[in-house]
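Cross-posted from the bioinformatics board.
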Amino acid sequence: MNERQIVLEVNGKEYKLTVKPNELLINVLRERLGLMGTKYGCGVGECGACTVLMDGNPVLSCQMLALSASGSKITTIEGIAQNGRLHPLQEAFLDEGAVQCGFCTPGMILSAKALLDKKPNPTDMEIKEAIRGNICRCTGYINILRAIKTASLKLSERSR
Amino acid sequence: MEKRDYHYLGKDFPRKDGFARVTGKEVYPSDVALNGMFFGKILRSPHPHAKIKSIDTSEAEKMGAVCITYRDVPDKYFNVRLVSVPRSTYMDWQILSNKVRQVGEPFAAVAAETEELAQRAAESVKVEWEILPSYLNTEDAMNATENLIHDHVYLEDEKIEIKNNIACMRELTEGDVTAGFKEADVIVENEFVTPRVYHCQLEPRSSVCKPEPDGGVTVWPSTQALHNTRILIGELFDIPLNKVNVVRVTGGGHFGSGIHTNRVILINVALALKAGTPVKIIPDREGDIYEHCRYPVRYTLKVGAKKDGTLVAGEMKALVDIGSHHIQAFAFLGVLVGWWHSLYRCKNLKYKGIAVYTNKAPSCAMQGYGAPQVTFGVETTMSMLAEKLGMDYLEFRLKNYVGLGETFWGQGPTVRSTIRSDGVEELITRGAELIGWNNRQPPEKKTGRYRRGIGMARGFHTSGTGAPVPGEVKDYTTAMVKINEDGSVDVLTSLMDQGGGTLDAAAKLVAEELGVPFDKVGISPADTRSTGYDVCTHATRGVYCGGGAVLEVARKAKEVLLEYASRILEAPVHALKTRPDLEREQGEVYVDGMEEKSITIAEVAQTAMNNDWGTAIFAKSHRMIACPPAFTTFFVEVEVDTETGRVTIERVVAGSDAGVVINPSLARGQIHGGFYRGAGMALLEDTHYDEKTGRLTNLGLLTDYKMLGPEDLPDEEHFQTFFANTYEPTGPMGAKGIGEAALNPVPAAVASAIQNATGIWFTKLPILPEDIVKALRQKKEGIATFEPEKDKNHTIEREFLKIRSF
């Protein structure tokens, strides 16, 4: 198959990569760039564990060809802490006990981040809607919802 | 012993592994990457029951792939689950066989340099099948006399012929049931059916294996039992155990599906050994759904009581559809009666259980190990009896529950111990207050389309499987505690943290015992070459048994530390105490009553090192002599839409008796999660098979395996949790378990709430909207119990009669 050159900006760093036309974004992130925080949970776009942000929007990296991501800005879980400081969502997930096995956590945090970036003070329904595509089998979602609310408060205080 | 003021126990700290988990740095089996690593693909059967006539892997090999079939693996029978002792472990597994017993059963595997090549190689393998008759339900399976799913299995060295696809049976009688029922003023008898739930742990069970130059292997598997995985690999591949290293990596969820060594791991080892290079296998989701599920149980339960509410007799007959292989159904049949008998006192009881093979995914432990299944029927029966006797549910339960000072055997008849802490009354009384039990209205008073109902159920899980006299289940943990030269501490065990905070609890117990700041206690990376045996992190035993072992070892390490300190402080050991000095961020040793005479733990450790005294270190195996019940009670309020049958969970009050609670926030998280999975089992979750093709009707897709989502659970304000004020005298600093107890009564509580809303008892799970609508129609005709549809030719009674030995 004809390999092609793509350019990806991942977590603020630019990568020039040669990829096959059938190569998935998740595999490029995990195997080529070593960003193992993006998780493989089902491979068919049902569980949300592979969620990353593409130009700020949540996408399922197991359903996206690396080719079609070319030219975009990708954010993975490894890229949201700033200068060694955890993102308020990461802090809140820790403080509110929203992490159990942790396998859904990266995708969940990124879905929540996409929401809070657009809507700093979402309603409960909007939060639930935003994470509907992210399955968590451990927590029963209650502490996750609380963590997202806590982070939203923290973020809006900060922007004041 | 009683509660005291703790520095760390009962207080919340961010979990130690949390930073890695929120930053994407935690390593799960699927994240392990090694130089020269191949990718493995498993070939799975398209047929429910078939023999391989011929298999041709030559195309795949031409592509450069390494292939294994039944010809390339050791021809040995085993059981994947090594938690029970050998004399009660039936062996019917082979790593790969020339016979497949379910759709999705692995029959070959390939490994290649890239995932793409492995996939293409897998697709090139040609198989000629001889199709055998398949049995997709217990009736067909038990009617079969030839073409059985297994012809024979092994129990230790004994070869056992299988008849009618019956995997094993178990019975138990106590007292005189016939006489007991004669004394009864009321009798309630029903048939209950519970679903074949899929664990749906978020990470498909993955594994990485590296062949080592010394002939050994290093494995990074998805498992709850590092040491059992190691022992099985050593046995099957004839590798000395000191060359089998199984490394602890975090599992992306288990819920019981990692108690046994999943076959993926064994295939992984076989592939890597043949390839001579590391191999990684990440199964796809469809493959994973065919690997494991919760034991579905169909059972009759008959219980009699006297007018004053005393239970006089009980009889249970259970039929368990175990699927294609034995993941210890014998032990499972034992616990079914254990859960029942340990919930309510009843001196006359009779129990029979049968486990039947079918051509479906093998069923195994899932949170509760039979307790949610049994608690559903028992709690429903208790409420029905109370109603018949005109007693309040709560009063009836308080009169009959097995509590303080009584013997219980939740883990089956061979694991008996005495209850020494009992928060049941507190859980029931406080829960009732919080939900407003006294204002609860009977179903007759409810009208209109939307009807609210309040229900309740209680239950328990054992904290581990220990007893004064060891039973069928192994139950010890080995730990090491080492005090470092800067006063920090390393804790080394092969316990797993499934997400509930087991290892944080272990660290807190050590911090508390040694008197060092919590953040100075570290959990060391673990593997089987550097740790001693631990049976498995299962059975709600992490905190009680695992924590118990770690605490015991910390005490011994502290003895060494204090002996060194007494030389320095020139005071006898018994006069020395320790405590954390938070200003100096150090633990310190001081002379009791002369607190100015003190020294930091770091100084003691350094002095001991520089004087050649040694390190304050200790390692030991430790077994707990009980498995105290972690009690829970759930009060649930639902709203039922009588037109659509939709059930909305409006409010939950969950009480837990976990003894001294070590990690309150994480323990609450366990309750939330337990409720979520329990409510899913009550209302939604099940797997079905197409009887013609033998395939799962969800086709291995999660979109067609419905689970509750964030919008289906009550908000935090409507989900109250509380803990009973108890102290478990045998537990580490008073603690018991919580994990599985957080789910066990949930399906029963939801069913009870639906009954209060609709007036109908549902005896089959999940309670689907269409069942509710249908039942409401039947109710107009005066039927108040909605039973599972019965095939008159296949009643449990009839099935049991077929088996002469019963």
